[in-house]
Amino acid sequence: MKKSAALPIALICLGSVWFLKSTALLPNTSTLLSLILAAAGCLLLIIDGFNKSTLVSSPLLIYAGAAIYLRDNLGLQFSHLLSLGMVVMGLLMLLARSDRIPERSRGWRALQDNQDQP
Question: Whole-prediction pTM value?
Fold first, then answer.
């Protein structure tokens, strides 16, 4: 039986982050969080495709990343960013109600369900 690869992978990740931080190659935490959120939004749209769910969640993840970046680098107030985020969320939710936007497909769940059956 093979042992889990979790410990070596965790050591590699932590060592890499520590090395990048100690050599000042790693951006500050808020910039890194902004990039991760924006990348997660793009990745979600790519993996799950364009549907009612990703129409709302993907742009909001990207907006959250942009809001954190703008707050940290330009000093915009949270109240401005949150109120604009509420407007964007409301518009996206209204747009997702359209019949032209496809429903979320079963995709990965259906594949997993089929593998469970003998």
Answer: 0.71
The single-letter code of the amino acid at 53 is S
Residues 115, 118: Cα–Cα separation, whole Å: 8
Check if the beta carbon of residue 39 is closer than 8 Å to that of residue 58. Answer: no
pLDDT in tens, 8-48: 888 887 888 888 888 888 788 888 889 889 999 999 889 88
**64-95: burial string, b at 16+ Cβ within 10 Å, e else:** bbbbbbebeeeeeeeeebeeebeeeeeebeee
Q: Provide CB contacts within 8 A for 1, sequence distance 6+.
A: none
Distance, CA of 83 to CA of 78 (rounded, Å): 8
